[in-house]
Amino acid sequence: MKELLLRRYPETRRHLPRDVTLGGMECEDGERQPWHQHQHGHVVMALRGVVRVLTPAHTWTLPASRALWLPPNTPHELHAVGRMQFCTISIEPGTVSWLWPNALVLTVGPLLRELAVDMLSDGFHYAPDSRTALSIPLLLRLLCEAAAPGEHGLPLPSSAKLLAICEHMMMAPATDYSLERWGEELGASGKTLARRFKDETGMTFGRWCQHMRASEAITRLALGASVGDVALALGYQSPSAFIVMFKRLFGRAPQQYLAVAER
């Protein structure tokens, strides 16, 4: 993942056929949309399964109840977890005044989800008087109202040693190594690693591990695993201990988080 995170692609300008367009795609488990970026704003919305979105500094896990806004010129890669269907909403800069300057999680309610699915049928080149064209103002309003500023992506460090630690932890989330133990493995001081980790991610290593395990939990639960199985797989002593951690991070129980918001 390190090389992928550090790649850069040349910017290309391709105007959208309309100020707002929608596209959809189905992917099998493990498929990727390699690193790329857009000159327009971009919403990634999972319709089935789970999509992971990577940028050079963060990773997000999106079940069907969440979407992600990416500002123009944000390098990103998409990973399918399970059989996955997703849609994208592309918005030309200047179309509306509220386009956010930073990546932002959106809560996807039933109306937003079903509207997006319905609008996919007309493709990019919809007629100015089509139902899709008439639905655009409502779609934009729902997106504006869907912002979930309290939900953040998982930050990633920039230095090679710390990124290697994070890669291992994300592949084996039940691992319970401290940074002192990692320091012994990598030939570095645990205190130095802890200081650099906080500087590069804005989190202590322990808090980062909590968020990483919560992200993995969202993936497994969205794919049908039980709370008990997920708690055991991630190293928690009991389902109740896992639920307490999850509620502390997200303000609600796992199944409430995964449920499509009633809007």
Automatic annotation (TrEMBL):
Keywords, alphabetical: Activator, DNA-binding, Repressor, Transcription, Transcription regulation
SUPFAM superfamilies: Homeodomain-like, RmlC-like cupins
Short name of any one Pfam family annotated for the protein: HTH_18
Keyword Repressor part of the UniProt annotation: yes
Molecular functions per Gene Ontology: DNA-binding transcription factor activity; sequence-specific DNA binding
SMART domains xrefs: HTH_ARAC
Domain HTH araC/xylS-type: 160-260
Keyword Transcription tagged: yes
Name the record gives this protein: AraC family transcriptional regulator
Source organism of this protein record: Pandoraea sputorum
Lineage: Bacteria, Pseudomonadati, Pseudomonadota, Betaproteobacteria, Burkholderiales
